[in-house]
Amino acid sequence: MKLADTHCHIDSDRYDEDRENILKEIEGNLEFAVNIGYDLDSSKRSIELADRHDFMYAVVGVHPTDIKGYNDELEDQLEELAGHPKVVAIGEIGLDYHWMKDEKEEQKTVFRRQLELAKRVNKPVVIHTRDATHDTLEILKEYPEIKGIVHCYPGSYESAVEIMDNYYFGVGGVITFKNARKLVEAVSKIPLDRLVIETDSPYLTPTPFRGKRNHPIYVEHIARKIAEIKEISYEEVVRVTTENAKKIYGI
Ligand SMILES: [Zn+2]
Question: What are the CA-CA distances from residue 84 to residues 48, 65, 111 (Å)?
Fold first, then answer.
């Protein structure tokens, strides 16, 4: 068993020059990778990647900072895309009060609408939450039938416990940063069978490549850090986190 990258954006124009190489790296080194949409166009690009490569899967949805223009028609199109056989979840959806403080109510409305959509199409969700942990958890708790991944989990262990029955927690490059003390503590306490690994490529590049463009194959550095924090073998981290990813995405 190999690692999986449960969250990346390989459709980004930062891979325009060498996307085929990135895809070869994934094919040669990972079990699979999941490309995540953040608006309608990136959702379509995610499906194109998944259509062309058996090791790629797609997630479709509208990110909280891209909700301008979200309407019935767009939602219908998303719902149609969600029916594609390689679409494994709805996302990334959620709340972001860091970049957008003024539209909290609009963000909540669109978040709930996409949770309803996930319920209709019977798929899990990929959650983005930034500076909004409390409101995000409150809304997720309104939908106890929905399962998913909280991507790049920013909260505490205590917050994680509140939704741990339904959610996995995505750990990315931030865990390798020097100032990640709070996250290290959360990851040390959250059981391994609730963790999945992600790069969020091209963003959040782990040490020792911090500052450069990220690659999905860098999941290895994240897995090694988790093994170190939890004092378990690298192989166990690989096996359990990949099984977790397969389970939640239905792969
Ligand atoms: Zn992302």
Answer: 11, 25, 21
